[in-house]
Specification:
elongated, 3-stranded mixed β-sheet, 18 helices, alpha/beta, 5-stranded mixed β-sheet, 8 strands
Amino acid sequence: MSGPVDRSGRPGAGFEGFTHDDENEESKSDEDNSEGDNKAKKGSFKKRAISAGNKFRRSLRRKSKKKSGNLASIEDIRDVQELETVERFRRCLLDGGLLPERHDDYHTMLRFLKARKFDIEKAKHMWSEMLRWRNEYGVDSIEEFDYTELNEVKKYYPQFYHGVDKEGRPVYVELVGKVDANKLVKVTTLDRYIKYHVKEFERSFQMRFPACSIAAKRHIDSSTTILDVQGVGLKNFSKDARELIMRLQKIDNDNYPETLCRLYIINAGQGFKMLWGTIKSFLDPQTASKIHVLGSKYQNKLLEIIDESELPDFLGGKCRCEESGGCSKSDKGPWKDPNIIERVLNGEANYGQQILAISSTDGKTVSYTKLHSSAPKSSGHASTSGTATVLEESVPTVVDKLVDDVCNSPKATSMASTSGSFSLRNIRMALGVLRTQIVTCLTVLIMSLFMVIRSAPSRVSERFSRQSIGCDHNCGEFPQNLEFKVPYVLRRLRELEEKVVVLETKPSQMPVEKEELLNTAVCRVDALEAELISTKKVLYETLIRQDELLAYIEKQDKNKFRKKRFCF
């Protein structure tokens, strides 16, 4: 049998046309289905992320009760990349059993990460050493330590907190030029003073920083420090003073990192400025940027960061605190306000914050979350508990917003339309390309640094050789070979150190017997000087009398000559 015939008489044409129409309808239906699948998959992906975030928030909210009353709205700006790094660091600490509840704090973990350049392994080691030190030193019970000699200590080591800067940070002042280490060790011991120093640091995290956060309505965990070095000399750097400085510096750097926002060294002389210019080149640029060395005209610089009503009058401000006996005794600041103290004890510094997370690459705001007020746990440390909830509630919100951005971006839409479905495969490919580029750039950078480091010794030796040759022509005292110049400089440094040690061993005051002998000798010298003056006066009168006698004798001789001449 022949096939069906269409109107043109061509056999099979009608069947082919029917098949072609069916294929068009099937392709259209497939495209509609693929678009529907794309939307469904994108929607399901977004729903899963949002539901996971909501479940996470609800599980956290169940752990604490609702607190009545309106709490302080404290803005807490966080970087998205820092949030992710802190979360990874937190999981690492939890896996190692190194995260006690009272230290489960976002900003504390961030400070340790910053201190180690966001190297999680180094930060973990630093964190574990901090926990070990706190356990051995008994930091958690240090509030019980009673430092009875504090008033006497401040006479020989003037130091105090006074007010806040224009950003709300507490201002700490030390009058280094008035430190007398020899008298300080007579009224206290180094161990007791260090224990008092640790107690003050803990008090700052428990009361001062939270109070400043409530007053400034932004998170505060660092301070502004002013060091007055007027009158600083060798007497301020005795053996006890050097030991105290080294021990305090180690405790602060190892256990309370990144708590200094800025440091102002005022009344610095030219010698100190030259020394600082040398030291600054060896410091990390970020650390060096926090330190400002000023001379005697420092007032305007301080007033740029501290309001004149918060700055003591002897530092260029207008505050005198006469009702408290002076600014050094007032301990002025938000932490003295009874209302703020009550709010700190209620935990408002950590419950009721607004987290504004921003992207570190383009500065675009990706999340803005106002935390629900939750009652703090009764641990007695309101400033260190509960901020883990802040971190954990902020991360899902940031994830939700990032999911929206990824799902709605043009690049994601084009990828979905070309591949037929929204999957993580394309994201992995993009991340793989990005990872390859980063590895390539790092390889080039490391090779460049390696070449620079290899060529540095030869350049340095050539430079020193030229300097030594020029110095040989001009001075003639330095050795001609660089290998002999370094030991020469070291030997000279040792000789200077020995002379300084000899000067330090000599008594600062003269013995009484020698002082009496010296006073007697001075009195005798004064008497001899008076006798010499009287003798000089007598000699002068004698000379005048001698001149008169000579004139009289000459006159008599002339008269005799005239008489003889008259007789002849």
